[in-house]
Structure formats: C-alpha cells, structure tokens
Amino acid sequence: MIPPAPPRPAQLGPLLARCRLDRGWSQQRAAAELCAAAGVPTLSRHEVSRWERQRRVPGGFWLGWLAVVLDVPLVVLAEAAAATRRARATRATGPRA
Q1: d(CA 89, CA 97)
Q2: Which of 5, 15, 34, 77 is the most exposed place for a label (fewest CB within 10 A)?
Q3: pLDDT tens, 23-81?
Q4: Smallest Cα–Cα separation from 58: which of 40, 92, 96, 94?
Q5: Cα–Cα distance measured from residue 33 to residue 44, given in angstroms and rounded to the nearest whole number
C-alpha cells in the first residue's frame, strides 16, 4: 500500500485572505495594522490586494510583520510564500517534460 502524499503547503494569497477575513478586517484595516506594527506609513490596501491575488509575494520584512499582525507562525507564511513562488516559476516556464 502506498502512503498518501504529504499535504502541499497552502499558497500565500488565499492564506492571507482567510486570516484577514477571520478577523473581520478589510484590506484597508490589514494595511493600517501592518503600518502601525512596522512603523512604516506607506503600505496601502492595494499592496495587500496584490499579495492576496498573488500578483506579488511579500518579502521577509513584510512576512515577519504579517506573522505578528495576523498571529500566524512565520514558518507557515514562509512556506506558503515559497509554494507561491514555486507555482509562479512553474507557470512561467511551463511544465517539465
């Protein structure tokens, strides 16, 4: 009998959206919370939207603050970000033969 494959890590966009919605926050509120926590006034709800739609993947700085603000272990977000980057790379290069 073949054991089942381990679950693939979730992609980051849906994970961020779910965590935000679980708190009842708008994208604007999530951006405001991130700005307050990080002390950076320039993050907008548009960037949160880009992350959730996977148009962009946040780097380590924002992943760390997302973990704090959304109360999610950083390792979970980092694995999801890596999975998202891998999926993007696969789509860009096409399936391997």
Answers
A1: 15
A2: 5
A3: 999 999 999 999 999 999 999 999 999 999 999 999 999 999 999 999 999 999 999 99
A4: 40
A5: 11
Alpha helix positions (H), the chain: 12-22, 27-38, 45-52, 60-70, 74-93
Comparing C-alpha atoms, which of 39, 47, 45 is closest to residue 25? 45
Residue with tokens 């950076």: 40
The conformation of residue 39, written as its DSSP 8-state character, comes to T
In angstroms, the CA 33 to CA 23 distance is 12
- Site of tokens 């790379």: 89
Q: State how far the Cα of 92 lies from the Cα of 69, in Å rounded to an integer.
A: 32
Specify whether the CB–CB gap between 33 and 66 falls below 8 A.
no
Q: Which tokens sit at 78?
A: 């980092």
Give pTM, 2 decimals.
Answer: 0.84
